[in-house]
Automatic annotation (TrEMBL):
UniProt site (Important for substrate specificity): 184, 239
PANTHER family: S-METHYL-5'-THIOADENOSINE PHOSPHORYLASE
NCBIfam families, per the entry: MTAP, PRK07823.1, PRK09136.1
Pathway the protein acts in: Purine metabolism; purine nucleoside salvage
Lineage of producing organism: Bacteria, Bacillati, Actinomycetota, Actinomycetes, Kitasatosporales
Organism: Streptomyces hydrogenans
Protein name: Purine nucleoside phosphorylase
Binding partners and assembly: Homohexamer. Dimer of a homotrimer.
Length: 288
């Protein structure tokens, strides 16, 4: 068995890049291998599906499970990020469907946010809470920097990939993440828009902060599937419409993701703020 520069066995249970998104993103790849993984936090949403894109080893994880049976507020985000890191992943791309909060961000808009507002209510959003885990390990209390929640290098890779395919992705904006699973009321939606926030979704947090806590690069790619309730004048957001628009765009989203994967820096060459998330901290637990 050959060991890679990162110390992981260069076999088919290793991946350096993770993609958290639906099965439409990897089901066309040749030689995808299903790898079940468990973690100290429980099982992730599904097995990891490992394959190769542009010569890079990639682990795909269906965020809601392959049958799409796990709603946003019941996803075990800690298990998902931990599972990815445990097979070697150090950079994560997180595509997700969102509602547009400005009339110009209509269905089909791709926006790569640079800021995040957390309006979730009941989600475990840290590994470092000082509480003993089921396996007896006790993490210390750690406060990571989160001023810039997304990886600057990952964002640039995503934006360049989109533009090279004539998809004029919006560079920056604020993703507000709500608890769900219901959609927003018109009043909530108008309030989100009045604050200057750009798009609204249900899964971008705590995914982003848990990635940061594990020292992973995380990039969010938001695909607008609808204008949110306060922005349009019709009946409000319907799940059917969200699915229809997502289905129409999943092919080009996959193309952009694959080009972005090819453009991400090699694991050993990462030199971004994400790599320094733990500087000065004693974590108390071993990361996988
Ligand atoms: Zn980074």
């Amino acid at each position: 068995m050959v060991s890679s520069a990162s110390g992981y066995a260069a076999d088919d249970t290793y991946a350096e890049i993770g993609v958290i998104g639906g099965s439409g993103l990897y089901s066309f790849l040749d030689d995808v291998r299903e790898v079940p993984v468990t973690t100290p936090y429980g099982d992730p949403s599904d097995s990891l599906f490992l394959g190769e894109v542009a010569g890079r080893r990639v682990a795909f994880l269906p965020r809601h499970g392959r049958r799409h049976h796990i709603p946003p507020h019941r996803i075990d985000y800690r298990a998902n990020l931990w599972a990815l890191r445990s097979v070697g992943v150090r950079q994560v791309l997180g595509p997700c469907a969102v509602g547009g909060l400005r009339p110009e961000y209509g269905p089909g808009t791709l926006l790569v946010p640079d800021q995040l507002i957390d309006r979730t209510k009941n989600r475990a959003q840290t590994y470092f809470d000082g509480e003993p885990r089921p396996d007896g390990a006790v993490p210390n209390v750690v406060h990571v920097s989160f001023a810039d929640p997304y990886c600057p290098d990952g964002r640039q890779a995503a934006l360049k990939a989109a533009r090279a395919r004539d998809w004029q992705a919006v560079d920056g904006g604020t993703l507000v993440v709500v608890e769900g699973p219901r959609f927003s009321t018109r009043a909530e939606s108008r309030w989100h828009a009045a604050n200057g926030w750009s798009v609204v979704g249900m899964t971008g947090h705590p995914e982003a902060v848990l990635a940061r806590e594990l020292g992973l690069c995380y990039t969010s790619l938001t695909l607008v599937t609808d204008l949110d309730a306060g922005t349009e004048t019709g009946e409000g957001v319907s799940h059917t419409e969200v699915l229809r628009v997502f289905g129409e765009n999943v092919g080009r989203l996959r193309d952009v993701l694959f080009d972005a994967i090819a453009a991400l820096p090699a694991t050993a060459d990462r030199d971004c703020l994400c790599v320094h998330a733990h500087d000065g901290w004693d974590l108390g637990i071993e990361l996988p």
